[in-house]
Amino acid sequence: NDIFKCGTIAGSAGNQAGVGGAVDTIVFNKTISAYLDNTDNIENSKFKNIDVLSIANTDLTVLAGAIGASAKVGAGATISTVVITKHINSLIQEGSSLTSDSIKLDTSANDNITIAAVAGSGAGEIAGSGVVNTTVVNSEMKSGIDKSTISAQNININTNAVANYDDISGAVAGAGAVGVGVTVTTNVIGYD
To answer: Which of 54, 44, 79 is nearest to 152 (CA)?
Structure first.
């Protein structure tokens, strides 16, 4: 299990201009493999059950905040980028010869991602704030038997992927003349 917690805060205040910005970047690339490769015959008397399991769970929390304030111009911005790539394999392969009552291959990924970002600005004349969140999850998962001889009463091959994603973001701008607040969130989540 991988647990990431990231928090950034920025603030600025000035007479003429106040600019605050927070940037979070998390890039995570992981390979997990469980396999039986070119084994000798494993007799039933030795192993009643054979389990080949690969599990990759990720819990990620990103908190970002920025504020800018000034008598004239204020700006606040947060940018959060998360890229998660996983290669998860549970395999019996390359000439393995197995005898058992039960053989189970199980590959699973559970990704829990929470992003909370806020940007604010306040100024006497012009205020602008923005939040940009980008999340990309791309996982390749394999469970299987290849080029092997298997003898079993029960063979279970499972692949399971779950993504739980929460994004709470907002931008607020207040000014005497012009105030602009913008929030943009882009999410790409895929499992092969």
So the answer is: 44
The tokens for 1 are 């299990």
Count Cβ atoms below 10 Å from residue 78 Cβ, excluding itself: 32
pTM above 0.85, yes or no: no
Q: Give the number of other Cβ atoms within 10 Å of residue 63's Cβ.
A: 19
The structure tokens 């604010």 sit at 120
Instruction: Report d(CA 166, CA 89) in Å as an integer.
Output: 27
The secondary structure of the chain in percent helix, strand, coil, rounded to multiples of 5, reads 0, 85, 15
Q: Give, for all 192 residues of the chain, the pLDDT tens digit.
A: 888 888 888 999 888 999 999 998 999 898 999 988 877 666 545 678 889 999 999 999 999 999 999 999 999 999 999 999 999 999 998 878 888 889 999 999 999 999 999 999 999 999 999 999 999 998 899 999 988 888 888 999 999 988 898 999 999 999 999 999 999 989 888 888
Rounded to whole angstroms, what are the CA distances from 25 to 71, 82, 139?
Answer: 32, 6, 19
In angstroms, what CA-CA distances link 44 with 38, 99, 175? Answer: 18, 5, 76
